[in-house]
Amino acid sequence: MSGVETVVHGVLSGCIVVFVVTWLLGALYFGVVAHGSRERARSWLRGLRASLPARIALVACIVVLQLLTGGGHNAFWQHLHYWNPVLGVLGAALAVASTALLVWARLVLGAMWASVPLVQEGHELRTSGPYSYVRHPIYTGFLGVVVGAMLGFGFGMWVLITAVVLPWLLHRVRVEDDMMAAEFGDQYLAYRLRVPALLPLRRIHL
Question: Where primarily located (predicted)?
Answer without folding.
Answer: membrane
